Amino acid sequence: MRIEIKPKPLTREAFKKFGEVIEKEGRESMIINRGSAEKFYEVCNMDANEKGVKSILHIYIGKGREFPLHINMLEKHPYFSQTFVPRSKEPFYCVVALGGREPDLSTLEIFKTNGDQGVHLNRGTWHFPLICIEDKQEFIVLDGVGINLDEKKVIECVEYNMQDKEIFLIKD
Ligand SMILES: NC(=O)N[C@@H](O)C(=O)O
Ligand code: NI
Fold this sequence. Notes:
Blueprint: E1 3-5, E2 8-9, H1 12-15, E3 19-22, E4 29-32, E5 37-40, E6 54-62, E7 71-76, E8 82-86, E9 92-97, E10 109-112, E11 118-121, E12 126-127, E13 131-132, E14 137-145, E15 151-158, E16 160-163, E17 166-171
Parallel strand pairs: 2-10
Antiparallel strand pairs: 1-17, 3-11, 4-5, 6-14, 7-15, 8-11, 8-14, 9-10, 9-12, 9-13, 16-17
Residues 75, 77, 82, 127, 129 line the site of nickel (II) ion.
Pfam families: Ureidogly_lyase
Protein name: Ureidoglycolate lyase
Enzyme class: lyase
């Protein structure tokens, strides 16, 4: 039996078991700095509170992925969450799964952002590393450093096919 998983639009409800969506949409804001700025506050948490781990900010410049894309491994960061905030209004893909020591491939999902969203991956959320569609997509990445133990599991290559830069993950 072949199950086709199609990319879903990224929404807070659909993504909440994996993490949080970084967006202004539907969020409360306040005017700060004597009216010179609008603050969308507490959009997501930063979960990096294991001893010795500190939160850090990186900038990533991603290469456009070659499609069709082999989803042949998943990784997770057990000691800190990982947050990707695009610096340009371009969509990117997020392949995620639940699971403990092993990813639970029955929970594998793929989300496509709308170009104005980022993602906060809960600590322990299995994911494929950043999937850029266009070349040189830039991201602010909030990570934890210290016990940077991120586990990687090579999974049987989940077959996929691609049309117009859409990815359909097909699982037998
Ligand atoms: N390796 C690294 O810094 N990034 C990955 O963890 C990723 O999820 O892209
Ligand atoms: Ni990662």
